[in-house]
Structures are given as C-alpha cells and as structure tokens.
Amino acid sequence: MAPIKAALLGFGTVGQGVYEALKTHREQLQNVLGKEVVIEGILVKDRSKKRELDEHVLITTDFDEILNIDGLEVVFEAIVGEEPGFTYLSRALDKGCHVITANKVMFAKHGRSLLDKAEALGRYVGYEATTAGGTPIIRSISQLLQVNEIHAVEAILNGTSNYILTNMREKGLPFHDVLVSAQELGYAEADPASDIEGHDAFYKLMILSELSFGETPKWEDVERKGITEVTREQISVFKDWGYKVKHLARIRRDRDQFISSVKPVLVDADHPLYGVEDVQNAITVETSLAGKVTVQGAGAGRLPTASAMVEDLTYVLQPQPVTRKKKTEQHADNNSESTDFTTVGEYVVIGSSVSFHGTDDVQILKQEIKEEHVFLLIECQVSTATLLKENPELAVYEVAGKEKNKKVEQEQKDVLLKKVTNL
Ligand SMILES: NC(=O)c1ccc[n+]([C@@H]2O[C@H](COP(=O)([O-])OP(=O)(O)OC[C@H]3O[C@@H](n4cnc5c(N)ncnc54)[C@H](OP(=O)(O)O)[C@@H]3O)[C@@H](O)[C@H]2O)c1
Q1: Over the stretch 142-200, which tens digit does the pLDDT of each residue have?
Q2: How many helices (H) and strands (E) does the chain have?
Q3: Ligand 1 closest atom vs CA 61
Q4: Number of neighbours of residue 205 by Cβ within 10 angstroms
Q5: Which residues belong to any copy of the Homoserine dehydrogenase catalytic domain (predicted)?
Q6: How far is 80 from 360, CA to CA, in rounded Å?
Q7: What is the largest CA-CA distance in the chain?
Q8: CA angle 399, 254, 346 (to 5 degrees)
Q9: Best label site of 48, 78, 223, 298, fewest CB within 10 Å?
Q10: How many beta carbons lie within 10 A of that of residue 151, not counting itself?
Q11: Is 109 assigned a catalytic role?
C-alpha cells in the first residue's frame, strides 16, 4: 500500500525527535494506520548544518519545494516563533495537507484561524505538543467536552519554573544558583526569560482556554508574573507553614467573565498539584460531571514532545471529536450564586514592616518574623493584583484552593479593601 507522505518543518530538538519516533515506532504506526509513514522532505533554516538523514529525504530552505512534494499528506511543524510557521501551515492546509504543530507561540495567536480553515477544508490540525509536551491534555479535554462543561483549568505548564522552585525548596538554594544548574542540565534555555517570566505558561494557558471555553480572555487582562522574585527565605517560611510555591496557570469562567492568572501561588498538601515536582507538568480540569480530572507527565523534551506529535498523526485518518464550544453554547450554571456572594481567599503577605488592623472580616490567621520580614497569613476578599497595586512594596502570594463564598455587602467590601490596602 502506498505510504503516507509527510514533511517536517524544523529539525531541531523536536523535529529530530519526530523523525526518530517515526522510525523506531514504524511498526506500531503501520498497525494503527494501515500504512507506513515516510518523511519525504525537511525544511531548515541553515542548509549547511550536517544532519543524519536517509538518502531519499529532501532537505531544503525553500518551503515551496516542500509543498511541491508529490502526494504530500501531512506537515509536522516544529520551528520557532509566530512566523513563518503560521503562513507555512496555512499554505499547507490550502494545499490539502493535515498539519501537526508543536509551536505554542504561533498556535496561541493563530490557532483559531488554523482550526477554522482546517474545518472548512475538511483537514485536521494536531496541536497536542503545544501544551505540556507529552501529556495528552488536549485530547483529554476534547474528550471531556463531548458531554461535560469545563468550569476551570489549573496547571503547572512550565517545567523549568517547576524545577527551579522544587530545587530551591529541597536544597535551600537561591534562585540564581538553581537557574544555572537547570541551564547546565539542559532544562533551561540560555535565554530563560520566556520560562521564568511566565510567557511560556501564558501561551499554553491561552491554548487551553480556547479549547475549553471556545475563547480566551483579553490577553492584557490576564495577570502574568514569573518566579524571579521568589526568595529562598520566603520558601523556607512557606515550608514551615505547610505550603509549596507553585507557578500556576489558572483560568476559571464565571458566567461571562474569566478569572485568569499565571503566577506563583501557594498550595497545601490537599491541592492536586502539590506533589508535582521538578520538570513535570500537570493540569487539573474542573468539569461539570466528571469533577476534577488531573493529567500529569513530561512537559517537554525531544521524545515526549515527539510522542504527542506522532500520536496526533494517528488521528489524521480518523473522524474527529468536537473540540470546542462557542461561548453561547455553554451553560452558565457554575457559580450561579456568585451575584450575591463574594469570594474570600487566603493570602500570605510579606513586608519589611507590616502593621495590620485586623477585624472579624479581615483575619490574620498566622504570623511570623524572619530575617526582618513580617509574614502574615490573612483571609480577605481582594485579589493579589489589587493588594499589589495599592502596596507595590509587599510580596503577596495567594493560597490556592482556599477560596470561599461569603455574603458581603458592597459597603462592607469597600471597607475591607481599605483595611487590607492599609497593611
Ligand atoms: N524543545 C521542547 O522540548 C519543546 C516542547 C514543546 C514544544 N516545543 C516547540 O517546538 C518548536 C521547536 O522547538 P525546538 O526545541 O525543536 O527548537 P530548535 O531546537 O531551536 O529547532 C528549531 C528548528 O527550526 C528550524 N528553523 C528555525 N527557523 C526557521 C525558519 N524560519 N525556516 C525554516 N526552519 C527554521 C531550525 O533550523 P536549523 O536547524 O537550520 O537551525 C531548527 O531545525 C518551538 O516552537 C517550541 O516552542 C518545544
């Protein structure tokens, strides 16, 4: 039987992984697809680099040569940045190919447009590898959405940040020392900004939002913070209090509004992501019927990412499940009491000299002074963003999963806000 002809855009970490996985798992793929999959062409930036490839493979810097491969059916994309990836995949769809991408920056921005084009053309867009590498989170959410509504997604989506926070806590080391060791081990890029400043997790969260809710919040409305300001002194107090700091990407839909952030948050042992350590990724999805579902696994790396792309390939020739619901199709039944209730949460607030006028409504649950810093665990009703806006000198960490709905009248809310921001 004639093989499935495929092309690879990019032959770096991920591209080479896909090439290798297609060879090492040839038989398994042939059993599933009924045909062999053959890479016929590879697009690169620098043609002069030495590459270990089968003789028949076309290697080129000209995308037209790839599109001109006779009978090309599938294009895998693993290059970097928004462009030229988006243009290449649009053209590949127009040409009648299925496309499979690992490129989160491109897909966060242009995913909807590619999915719409593919739907119109009866083609398939695989993007499992864009989010949490080898974990099957895109397929899991797609499957859950067949019947369930998704209410919220909470996730550790950046392995580098998780590795740094885990090792700062376990070894008592400062941020910079662990970052250097992560770079030596190949867990962090030479330029780690996208990982440690939260951009990488942000793009992945936007991809999960589009899939789960059929839309994203306005990007500028999402609170985004990296892990660079987390200190080992803070981590040591959090540890004594039973918390770990995790860099969490979170989105919840409450009626027509999104509550969304990407930032360091405290979790206790009851939280589903408490035990997710080192470079692991994990995603908890809160659903209408299935309750909380957590998927955990390798968030990046050559073979886990290649696995996601090759798994996508097995869907190419199969009927596709519905993967999105438009906003209007969602039931606005979650948090239906939220008009009358306000959310009260727990926060750890850290400052050099914090004086606090507690009341029954703003409660200090715990306090400690360590190395001239005052640590307060408080319960109150405002968000970290509000606290920080009013008190930029403070460090504020939200404690995940401690939100409660309390009835608070508007007048009380105003008083509360004033009291909290007077810390
Ligand atoms: N690394 C991971 O673990 C991982 C995990 C999930 C998703 N991803 C995503 O997968 C994509 C690839 O990542 P990677 O780590 O494999 O990157 P990489 O090692 O830097 O490889 C990038 C490849 O793309 C080629 N390339 C770059 N710009 C190009 C252009 N304009 N035209 C044609 N080819 C171009 C490069 O060609 P040359 O070889 O000639 O330089 C190289 O082969 C990225 O979007 C990344 O975000 C990576």
Answers
A1: 999 999 999 999 999 999 999 999 999 999 999 999 999 999 988 888 889 999 999 99
A2: 14, 17
A3: 33
A4: 29
A5: 136-313
A6: 53
A7: 77
A8: 15
A9: 48
A10: 20
A11: no
